[in-house]
Specification:
Layout lengths: L17 H14 L5 H11 L3 H13 L22 H15 L7 H14 L7 H9 L3 H9 L1 H8 L20 E8 L7 E8 L1
Antiparallel strand pairs: 1-2
Helix pairs in contact: 1-2, 1-3, 2-3, 4-5, 7-8
């Protein structure tokens, strides 16, 4: 059973990050015009890598001599990468505009059924519902609302609202509401005399 080599550092290097330690090991190697096996073996022992991986990282670091180039890359495709055939991708974009972005506001599942039917008719593999949703969400929300609910609805939702008056102390701005009130006035000297009138109450 093969033994797993464990990366070892000198005590002075224990306080720095893994990336900084890797750069400290690879930078002198990358500066050498020719690599020798002894130097590669020493770097492999220090980092816990095999010799082949050290050679590969030296090439990467020479091409881009920054610490980030030594960081492990995430597996899979980069975010936003499209894996569908360009012709099929264009067909889907056209169908999103013609079928989904309409005033009738069809659902995503209705669009998915239409796309799948057209793909089967042309002998192509249909995209997944997730892929279809991703292509819709690439469109801005304002564009989708304008197409499905109207330009006015999109304007009402995204129109910039101007800031109102700003105050810095209490009662700096006072608003008065004029409301007509039915008032009955009584004379305390003549209790039998009454007058009724409408007045503005603030």
């Amino acid at each position: 059973m093969p033994q797993v080599r464990v990366a070892t550092r000198p005590p002075a290097a224990l306080s720095i990050s893994d990336a900084a330690w890797a750069e400290a090991v690879f930078r002198p190697l990358a500066a050498e015009p020719r690599l020798n096996k002894a130097a590669i073996a020493g770097a492999a022992r220090q980092l816990g890598f095999c010799a082949a991986h050290v050679y590969s990282l030296v090439r990467v670091f020479r091409a881009d001599p920054v610490t980030a180039s030594l960081a492990p890359s995430r597996p899979g495709l980069a975010r936003g990468t499209r894996r569908l055939d360009p012709a099929l991708d264009g067909q889907i974009e056209t169908m999103i505009t013609a079928v989904y972005l309409r005033a009738e506001r069809p659902t995503l599942k209705e669009l998915f059924r239409q796309v799948r039917q057209d793909c089967y008719g042309s002998g192509q593999r249909p995209p997944s519902l997730k892929a279809l949703r991703a292509r819709i969400t690439v469109r801005t929300l304002r564009e989708r609302i304008a197409a499905r609910e109207g330009v006015g609805a999109a304007g009402d939702r995204f129109r910039q609202i101007k800031a109102g008056p700003r105050t810095t102390r209490p009662l700096q701005v006072v608003q008065i509401d004029h409301t007509k009130v039915d008032v009955a006035a009584r004379n305390h000297r003549r209790p039998d005399a009454q007058s009724r009138a409408f007045s503005d109450a603030d």
